[in-house]
Amino acid sequence: MHNNLHHNLHNNSPVNKDLDLTLDLVIAAPREKVWQALTQPELIKQWFAPKPYTTPDCRVDLRCGGEFYTLMQSPDGEQYPNSGCFTQVCEPEVLGWTDALSTDFRPAAQSFMSVQIRLSDHENVTGYHVHVMHKNSDDKQRHESMGFVEGWTQCAKQLEAVACGL
Question: Locate the Activator of Hsp90 ATPase homologue 1/2-like C-terminal domain: which residues (predicted)?
Fold first, then answer.
């Protein structure tokens, strides 16, 4: 499932402190298992939303330009669908997606963020490097105030639990 790096839309994008959020964590599971948990819909449903939120639906077409759809749901039943496409699929190192584009890189009506996750291999643990890009500082601030660090850290711990169970 290796795709050539020249097909990536934002390979090694530089961090813009005014527009981007980043997170560097360590996941206590081998990189191949973290990759599985990042890319398989039934596994994504188990960790993608910070509990008590859930992810009742997920669709993955794991290729550059392929669909990435998640439906997050609050404890009171409010739903938050997010549709986009993969911009990077370099197994088992880099996974990128954006809601600025729909399947096959068609422009989307609106966008909030583009995400790049890089996995680095360290014996029995995995470096989990998140880079979230926003179109303007208001979106970045809104994402930060929604609890970006806390929420994405909690999801990474949930991802770790899923990966360790594989």
Answer: 28-162
As beta bridge partners, residue 120 has 127
Asked if residue 79 has pLDDT above 60, the reply is: yes
Q: Alpha carbon of 154 to those of 46, 51, 86, 120: distances in Å? A: 12, 8, 23, 19
Helix axes 148-164, 31-39, angle to 10 degrees: 110
* Nearest Cα residue to 59 out of 48, 71, 49, 72: 71
Give me the pLDDT at residue 13, please. Answer: 73
- Is domain 5-164 annotated with CATH 3.30.70.1280? no
Within 8 A by CB and 6+ apart from 7, the residues are 64
DSSP 126-143: EEEEEEEE-SSHHHHHHH
Percentage of the chain exceeding pLDDT 70: 93
CA-to-CA distance for 33 and 96, rounded, in angstroms? Answer: 17
Cis peptide before 14 (omega within 30 of 0): no
Q: Which token pair is 73?
A: 């749901």
Domain layout of the chain by residue ranges: 5-164
pLDDT reported for residue 14: 86
